[in-house]
Amino acid sequence: MNFEATKAIENYRDATDHEKSERKQVEMTEQRPRFLHQILESNLASSEKTAERMSQEGFSIIAAGGETVARTLTTMTYHLITNPSILAKLRRELQSAQPDPLTPLPFQELEQLPWLTAVIKESMRLWGVMASRSPLVSPTPLQYEDWVIPAGTPIGMTMMNVLQNPTVYPSPQTFDPSRWLDLSPDSPKNQNFVCYGKGSRMCLGMNLAQTELYLAVAAVFRRFDLELYDTERLRDVESTRDCFTGEASKGSRGVRVRVIAEPIAEPER
Protein backbone atom coordinates (compact mmCIF):
# COMPACT_ATOMS: atom_id res chain seq x y z
CA MET A 1 0.00 0.00 0.00
CA ASN A 2 1.49 3.35 -1.01
CA PHE A 3 2.03 6.28 1.36
CA GLU A 4 -0.97 8.32 0.10
CA ALA A 5 -3.40 5.45 0.62
CA THR A 6 -2.05 4.71 4.12
CA LYS A 7 -2.35 8.36 5.07
CA ALA A 8 -5.91 8.55 3.78
CA ILE A 9 -6.90 5.50 5.86
CA GLU A 10 -5.30 7.03 8.98
CA ASN A 11 -7.12 10.31 8.42
CA TYR A 12 -10.42 8.50 7.97
CA ARG A 13 -9.85 6.49 11.16
CA ASP A 14 -9.00 9.67 13.10
CA ALA A 15 -12.10 11.42 11.80
CA THR A 16 -14.27 8.43 12.68
CA ASP A 17 -12.84 8.25 16.20
CA HIS A 18 -13.43 11.97 16.65
CA GLU A 19 -17.02 11.65 15.46
CA LYS A 20 -17.64 8.76 17.87
CA SER A 21 -16.17 10.79 20.74
CA GLU A 22 -18.40 13.78 19.94
CA ARG A 23 -21.47 11.55 19.67
CA LYS A 24 -20.69 10.02 23.07
CA GLN A 25 -20.36 13.49 24.62
CA VAL A 26 -23.74 14.50 23.21
CA GLU A 27 -25.34 11.32 24.56
CA MET A 28 -23.85 11.92 28.02
CA THR A 29 -25.11 15.50 28.00
CA GLU A 30 -28.61 14.42 27.01
CA GLN A 31 -28.68 11.84 29.81
CA ARG A 32 -27.51 14.30 32.49
CA PRO A 33 -30.43 15.53 34.64
CA ARG A 34 -31.41 19.14 34.06
CA PHE A 35 -31.63 21.49 37.01
CA LEU A 36 -35.36 22.21 36.76
CA HIS A 37 -36.15 18.58 35.95
CA GLN A 38 -34.49 17.54 39.20
CA ILE A 39 -36.83 19.81 41.13
CA LEU A 40 -39.92 18.73 39.23
CA GLU A 41 -39.11 15.03 39.61
CA SER A 42 -38.16 15.31 43.29
CA ASN A 43 -40.32 14.48 46.31
CA LEU A 44 -40.92 18.14 47.11
CA ALA A 45 -44.51 19.19 47.73
CA SER A 46 -46.55 20.26 44.69
CA SER A 47 -46.61 23.82 46.04
CA GLU A 48 -42.83 23.90 45.52
CA LYS A 49 -43.17 22.97 41.83
CA THR A 50 -45.39 25.75 40.51
CA ALA A 51 -44.54 27.73 37.41
CA GLU A 52 -43.81 30.76 39.59
CA ARG A 53 -41.37 28.79 41.72
CA MET A 54 -39.63 27.39 38.64
CA SER A 55 -39.30 30.88 37.15
CA GLN A 56 -37.75 32.11 40.40
CA GLU A 57 -35.25 29.25 40.37
CA GLY A 58 -34.36 30.04 36.76
CA PHE A 59 -33.86 33.70 37.57
CA SER A 60 -31.62 32.77 40.48
CA ILE A 61 -29.40 30.68 38.22
CA ILE A 62 -29.10 33.48 35.64
CA ALA A 63 -28.55 36.29 38.15
CA ALA A 64 -26.39 34.51 40.71
CA GLY A 65 -24.61 32.16 38.33
CA GLY A 66 -24.00 34.43 35.36
CA GLU A 67 -24.64 38.10 35.93
CA THR A 68 -22.40 38.29 39.00
CA VAL A 69 -19.29 37.09 37.17
CA ALA A 70 -20.17 39.08 34.04
CA ARG A 71 -20.56 42.35 35.95
CA THR A 72 -17.32 41.75 37.87
CA LEU A 73 -15.46 41.26 34.58
CA THR A 74 -17.12 44.36 33.14
CA THR A 75 -16.08 46.49 36.10
CA MET A 76 -12.57 45.08 36.01
CA THR A 77 -12.14 45.71 32.29
CA TYR A 78 -13.07 49.37 32.65
CA HIS A 79 -10.75 50.00 35.59
CA LEU A 80 -7.80 48.15 34.07
CA ILE A 81 -8.00 50.07 30.81
CA THR A 82 -8.33 53.41 32.61
CA ASN A 83 -5.39 52.59 34.89
CA PRO A 84 -2.52 51.75 32.47
CA SER A 85 0.10 51.20 35.18
CA ILE A 86 -2.09 48.63 36.94
CA LEU A 87 -2.82 46.89 33.63
CA ALA A 88 0.87 46.88 32.68
CA LYS A 89 1.77 45.22 35.99
CA LEU A 90 -0.92 42.59 35.46
CA ARG A 91 0.29 41.90 31.93
CA ARG A 92 3.90 41.53 33.05
CA GLU A 93 2.87 39.03 35.72
CA LEU A 94 0.80 37.04 33.22
CA GLN A 95 3.57 37.11 30.60
CA SER A 96 6.09 35.83 33.11
CA ALA A 97 3.82 33.01 34.29
CA GLN A 98 2.45 32.18 30.84
CA PRO A 99 5.05 32.83 28.10
CA ASP A 100 2.78 31.45 25.36
CA PRO A 101 -0.49 33.45 25.28
CA LEU A 102 -2.26 30.58 23.52
CA THR A 103 -1.36 28.00 26.18
CA PRO A 104 -3.57 28.81 29.18
CA LEU A 105 -2.52 28.07 32.73
CA PRO A 106 -4.72 25.95 35.01
CA PHE A 107 -6.65 27.68 37.75
CA GLN A 108 -4.41 26.18 40.45
CA GLU A 109 -1.44 28.12 39.05
CA LEU A 110 -3.33 31.33 38.30
CA GLU A 111 -4.64 31.68 41.85
CA GLN A 112 -1.04 31.81 43.09
CA LEU A 113 -0.37 35.04 41.15
CA PRO A 114 -0.54 37.87 43.71
CA TRP A 115 -1.29 40.81 41.41
CA LEU A 116 -3.96 38.94 39.46
CA THR A 117 -5.58 37.94 42.77
CA ALA A 118 -5.44 41.53 43.99
CA VAL A 119 -7.02 42.83 40.77
CA ILE A 120 -9.89 40.35 41.05
CA LYS A 121 -10.57 41.12 44.71
CA GLU A 122 -10.46 44.88 44.15
CA SER A 123 -12.84 44.61 41.20
CA MET A 124 -15.32 42.66 43.32
CA ARG A 125 -14.95 45.09 46.22
CA LEU A 126 -15.45 48.18 44.10
CA TRP A 127 -18.52 46.79 42.34
CA GLY A 128 -20.03 45.29 45.49
CA VAL A 129 -21.75 42.34 43.75
CA MET A 130 -25.17 42.28 45.46
CA ALA A 131 -27.18 45.45 45.81
CA SER A 132 -30.12 43.76 47.53
CA ARG A 133 -30.02 43.17 51.25
CA SER A 134 -29.40 39.67 52.59
CA PRO A 135 -31.92 39.35 55.43
CA LEU A 136 -31.56 36.86 58.24
CA VAL A 137 -33.82 36.25 61.23
CA SER A 138 -32.39 35.49 64.67
CA PRO A 139 -34.47 33.19 66.90
CA THR A 140 -33.06 34.99 69.96
CA PRO A 141 -32.73 38.69 70.86
CA LEU A 142 -29.59 40.47 69.63
CA GLN A 143 -27.67 43.23 71.36
CA TYR A 144 -26.30 45.99 69.12
CA GLU A 145 -24.56 48.71 71.12
CA ASP A 146 -27.35 50.27 73.22
CA TRP A 147 -30.20 48.58 71.37
CA VAL A 148 -31.84 45.19 71.78
CA ILE A 149 -33.23 43.74 68.55
CA PRO A 150 -36.18 41.45 69.34
CA ALA A 151 -36.14 37.82 68.29
CA GLY A 152 -37.76 37.18 64.90
CA THR A 153 -36.80 40.59 63.47
CA PRO A 154 -35.51 40.44 59.87
CA ILE A 155 -32.04 42.01 59.74
CA GLY A 156 -30.26 42.76 56.51
CA MET A 157 -27.35 44.72 55.12
CA THR A 158 -26.11 45.73 51.69
CA MET A 159 -22.71 44.33 50.77
CA MET A 160 -21.82 47.58 49.01
CA ASN A 161 -21.93 49.49 52.30
CA VAL A 162 -19.49 47.06 53.89
CA LEU A 163 -17.14 46.85 50.91
CA GLN A 164 -16.91 50.63 50.53
CA ASN A 165 -16.53 51.51 54.19
CA PRO A 166 -13.80 54.20 54.23
CA THR A 167 -12.72 53.18 57.72
CA VAL A 168 -11.68 49.76 56.40
CA TYR A 169 -10.92 50.69 52.79
CA PRO A 170 -9.46 54.22 52.52
CA SER A 171 -10.48 56.06 49.32
CA PRO A 172 -13.12 53.38 48.67
CA GLN A 173 -14.02 54.66 45.18
CA THR A 174 -10.42 54.33 43.99
CA PHE A 175 -9.39 51.21 42.10
CA ASP A 176 -6.32 50.16 44.08
CA PRO A 177 -5.39 46.45 43.93
CA SER A 178 -2.30 47.10 46.06
CA ARG A 179 -4.54 47.33 49.13
CA TRP A 180 -4.81 43.52 48.99
CA LEU A 181 -1.11 42.72 49.02
CA ASP A 182 0.70 41.26 52.03
CA LEU A 183 -2.38 40.99 54.23
CA SER A 184 -2.90 38.48 57.02
CA PRO A 185 -6.08 36.37 56.79
CA ASP A 186 -7.52 38.10 59.86
CA SER A 187 -6.83 41.66 58.68
CA PRO A 188 -9.87 44.00 58.68
CA LYS A 189 -9.80 44.18 54.88
CA ASN A 190 -10.09 40.41 54.55
CA GLN A 191 -12.57 40.07 57.39
CA ASN A 192 -14.86 42.63 55.73
CA PHE A 193 -14.55 41.11 52.24
CA VAL A 194 -18.13 39.83 52.12
CA CYS A 195 -18.63 39.50 48.36
CA TYR A 196 -19.64 35.87 48.81
CA GLY A 197 -21.37 36.40 52.13
CA LYS A 198 -20.27 34.74 55.35
CA GLY A 199 -21.04 31.70 57.42
CA SER A 200 -23.43 28.87 56.61
CA ARG A 201 -25.42 30.99 54.13
CA MET A 202 -22.49 32.10 51.99
CA CYS A 203 -22.49 31.68 48.21
CA LEU A 204 -22.69 28.06 47.03
CA GLY A 205 -21.05 28.92 43.72
CA MET A 206 -18.01 30.71 45.15
CA ASN A 207 -15.42 28.24 43.87
CA LEU A 208 -16.97 28.14 40.40
CA ALA A 209 -17.10 31.94 40.23
CA GLN A 210 -13.47 32.25 41.34
CA THR A 211 -12.35 29.78 38.69
CA GLU A 212 -14.28 31.61 35.97
CA LEU A 213 -12.79 34.96 36.97
CA TYR A 214 -9.18 33.78 37.03
CA LEU A 215 -9.43 31.92 33.72
CA ALA A 216 -11.28 34.73 31.92
CA VAL A 217 -9.00 37.54 33.07
CA ALA A 218 -5.86 35.61 32.21
CA ALA A 219 -7.20 34.58 28.80
CA VAL A 220 -8.23 38.10 27.76
CA PHE A 221 -5.51 40.31 29.20
CA ARG A 222 -2.63 37.96 28.43
CA ARG A 223 -3.59 37.93 24.78
CA PHE A 224 -5.32 41.19 23.82
CA ASP A 225 -4.74 44.93 23.99
CA LEU A 226 -8.06 46.72 24.45
CA GLU A 227 -9.27 50.32 24.37
CA LEU A 228 -12.59 51.71 25.56
CA TYR A 229 -15.25 52.72 23.07
CA ASP A 230 -18.05 55.15 23.98
CA THR A 231 -17.94 54.19 27.66
CA GLU A 232 -18.49 56.44 30.67
CA ARG A 233 -17.97 55.45 34.29
CA LEU A 234 -21.12 57.09 35.70
CA ARG A 235 -23.40 55.79 32.93
CA ASP A 236 -21.88 52.38 32.17
CA VAL A 237 -19.95 51.22 35.23
CA GLU A 238 -21.37 52.62 38.46
CA SER A 239 -24.22 50.70 40.08
CA THR A 240 -27.31 52.90 40.03
CA ARG A 241 -30.05 50.24 40.17
CA ASP A 242 -30.84 47.42 42.56
CA CYS A 243 -31.64 44.41 40.37
CA PHE A 244 -30.45 41.86 42.94
CA THR A 245 -27.01 42.67 41.57
CA GLY A 246 -26.00 46.28 41.21
CA GLU A 247 -26.65 47.36 37.62
CA ALA A 248 -25.65 50.37 35.56
CA SER A 249 -28.15 52.99 34.40
CA LYS A 250 -30.97 52.06 32.03
CA GLY A 251 -29.33 54.13 29.30
CA SER A 252 -26.12 52.10 29.45
CA ARG A 253 -25.07 49.92 26.54
CA GLY A 254 -22.40 48.32 28.70
CA VAL A 255 -18.64 48.65 28.80
CA ARG A 256 -17.59 48.44 25.16
CA VAL A 257 -14.06 47.98 23.88
CA ARG A 258 -12.03 47.67 20.70
CA VAL A 259 -9.37 45.00 20.26
CA ILE A 260 -6.34 46.90 19.00
CA ALA A 261 -3.56 44.28 19.24
CA GLU A 262 -2.58 40.82 20.34
CA PRO A 263 0.57 41.16 22.49
CA ILE A 264 2.69 38.04 22.24
CA ALA A 265 6.08 39.40 23.22
CA GLU A 266 8.12 38.01 26.06
CA PRO A 267 7.94 39.96 29.34
CA GLU A 268 10.20 42.95 29.76
CA ARG A 269 13.37 42.31 31.75
As a percent range, the share of strand residues is 5-15%
Tally of DSSP β-strands: 8
> What is the CA–CA distance across the termini?
55 Å
Average of the residue pLDDT scores: 85
**Helical amount:** 40-55%
Shape: globular
Strand order of the largest sheet: 1-4
Mind telling me the C-alpha Rg? Answer: 24 Å
**Regions with little confidence, pLDDT below 50 for 5+ residues:** none
Number of helices: 10
- Summarize the main sheet: 2 strands, antiparallel
Q: Strand-and-helix sequence, N→C? A: HHHHHHEEEEHHHEHEEE
Question: What are the main properties of this structure?
Answer:
269 residues; mainly alpha; two-stranded antiparallel sheet
Give an overview of the whole structure:
With 269 residues, the chain is mainly α. Helices cover 48% and strands 9% of the residues. It contains 10 helices and 8 strands. It has helices spanning 3-31, 35-40, 51-81, 84-97, 107-110, 114-127, 159-163, 188-191, 206-223, 233-236, and strands spanning 136-137, 142-144, 147-149, 154-155, 225-228, 241-243, 245-247, 257-261. The strands form 4 sheets. A two-stranded antiparallel sheet has the order 1-4. Strand 6 (241-243) and strand 7 form a beta hairpin. Helix 3 crosses helix 6 (114-127) and helix 3 runs parallel beside helix 9. The radius of gyration is 24 Å and the shape is globular. It starts with a helix and ends in an 8-residue tail after the last strand.
